């Protein structure tokens, strides 16, 4: 949704989509951080999520703390078909793609960082590739949550994204979830660009532990 304020248009999301995979074995994996964010928002805003066959996902709508009606969606199509669910909701409610905020994981950002953008490419993310293909545009806002890259000699990329956060990373992720919620609520109040200017520079990443020789 675009709101005119003082003759300046601001972009305010009317739907929030978190990406992930539906089976229990994927719970709390790095690749499912989008699901985790939507679950946290649903709890915070007291919006129940229920399976909706026509939307190919878990869906709920209600009032966000920012006082705006919001729609929440977790596609249950598996990641590489996320666009089917997003398109279903967009078509049913006649939503402009620019009003749909998509949340997903990003290996190019360290754990502790998040990045809001108004548009952009898929960046190699299969869920985003599917959404761009089904909406027919790259012009929709997205919030990337850093999951870090595998260290040299560690698991390859697929094992990394489908793996779970370490205990130290989980401590950071707990703080990141609060940061992400605050950034989204500001987007609902004052627009995505305002939130970008305040939150894209925030860094909760902790430096790696230094090893001491005995």
Relevant terms:
214 residues, alpha/beta, Rossmann fold, two-stranded antiparallel sheet, 21% strand, globular
Verbal overview:
The chain is of the alpha/beta class. The chain has one domain: Peptidyl-tRNA hydrolase (Rossmann fold), CATH 3.40.50.1470. Helix content is 34%, strand content 21%. It has six helices and nine strands. The strands form two sheets. It has a seven-stranded mixed β-sheet, with helices on both faces. Strand 4 and strand 5 form a beta hairpin. Helix 5 packs antiparallel against helix 6. The longest helix is centred in the C-terminal third of the chain and has 24 residues. It is globular, with a radius of gyration of 17 Å.
pLDDT averaged over residues: 92
Q: Note the gap between the termini.
A: 60 Å
Named CATH architecture: 3-Layer(aba) Sandwich
Helical run tally: 6
CATH homologous superfamily classification: Peptidyl-tRNA hydrolase
Q: What's the shape? A: globular
Which CATH class applies here?
Alpha Beta
Q: How large is the radius of gyration?
A: 17 Å
How many strands appear in the DSSP assignment? 9
Low-confidence stretches: 210-214
| Total number of domains | 1
Write out the strand line-up for the largest beta sheet, numbering strands in chain order.
Answer: 4-5-6-3-7-9-8
Helix/strand-derived class? alpha/beta
The percent of residues in helical segments reads 25-40%
The H/E string reads EEEHEEEHEEHEHHH
Biggest sheet character:
7 strands, mixed
Strand fraction:
15-25%
CATH topology: Rossmann fold
């Amino acid at each position: 949704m675009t709101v005119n304020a003082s003759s300046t248009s601001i972009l305010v999301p009317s739907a929030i989509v978190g990406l992930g995979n539906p089976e229990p074995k994927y719970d709390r994996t790095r690749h499912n951080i989008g699901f985790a964010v939507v679950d946290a928002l649903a709890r915070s805003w007291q919006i129940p999520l229920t399976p909706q066959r026509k939307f190919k996902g878990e869906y709920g709508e209600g009032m966000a703390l920012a006082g705006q009606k919001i729609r929440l969606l977790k596609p249950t199509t598996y990641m590489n078909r996320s666009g089917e669910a997003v398109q279903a909701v967009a078509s049913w409610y006649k939503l402009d793609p620019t009003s749909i905020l998509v949340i997903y994981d990003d290996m190019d950002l360290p754990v502790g960082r998040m990045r809001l953008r108004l548009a952009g490419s898929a960046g190699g993310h299969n869920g985003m590739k599917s959404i761009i293909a089904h909406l027919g545009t790259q012009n929709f806002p997205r919030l990337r949550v850093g999951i870090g890259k595998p260290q040299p000699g560690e698991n390859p990329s697929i094992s990394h994204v489908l793996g779970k956060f370490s205990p130290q990373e989980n401590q950071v992720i707990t703080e990141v979830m609060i940061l992400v919620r605050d950034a989204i609520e500001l987007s609902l109040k004052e627009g995505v660009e305002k939130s970008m200017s305040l939150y894209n520079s925030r860094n909760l990443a902790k430096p790696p532990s230094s090893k001491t020789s005995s």
